[in-house]
Amino acid sequence: MRRSDKQITDPAELESLLSSSEICHLSMVDDGKPYVVPMNFGYADGALYFHSAPEGRKIDILGKNPDVCFSIIVRNILIKGEKACSWTAKYSSVTGTGKAEVINVRKEKEKGMSILMSQYSDKEFDFSEVDLTGVVVIRVVIEEITGKSSDAGKELEGARGNLGKRSRTCVEGACVERESWKYTQSSRTISHVKRSRVFEI
Question: CA distances (Å), 170 to each of 20, 27, 71, 158, in order?
């Protein structure tokens, strides 16, 4: 990475960002041409989990070429300036590559769907046979990963209202509402991961 001062090297921070993001852009290669899809996802144990209809362009592409790359952005805040070239953004992002596998086995699909839902809720869900029949789960085992940050976390520190389990911070005309929760995987436990929602005021 050219800007090594912005590079995120701490594995725990990379996992925290993956666990707190809500949208992942999944990129594939379709007969030599790039194809990218923004998707909901879940993260656990070094892998990303997506769900999809059993048929479609994504499934056709991955059947021919399982190599993918992915990108997420967390805490993106626009910083305005007086001149065009003085505008900037405070953000944290993660990009990486991996191999995708389409899962059709019921038990593995249920596990993947549970991981996906845990990205957005701490509630436990049950999945019926009907629920699982209409979907497949795509598991992407991460092979390479890198992170980059423009001090988004520091910009969001400061006056923080007490909203129970949620907190709200406003910086440069944008508010971030956060929720603290616990994320556990086999190798480590990450406590108080921040899930953020950015909106204009």
Answer: 19, 33, 25, 9
CB 48, CB 139: distance < 8 Å: yes
In sequence order, the 6+-apart residues with CB closer than 8 A to the CB of 77 are: 89, 90, 91, 152, 155, 156, 171, 172, 174, 176, 198
Determine the length of the chain.
201
144 Cβ neighbours under 8 A, 6+ residues apart = 96, 97, 98
Which phi and psi angles does 48 have, rounded to 5°? Answer: -105, 145
> Going residue by residue through the chain (201 aa), what tens digit of pLDDT does each one get?
565 656 787 888 999 999 989 999 999 999 999 999 999 999 999 999 999 999 999 999 999 999 999 999 887 788 899 999 888 888 889 999 999 999 989 999 999 999 999 999 999 999 999 889 889 999 999 999 999 887 644 444 432 222 223 333 344 444 444 333 333 333 333 333 334 444 333
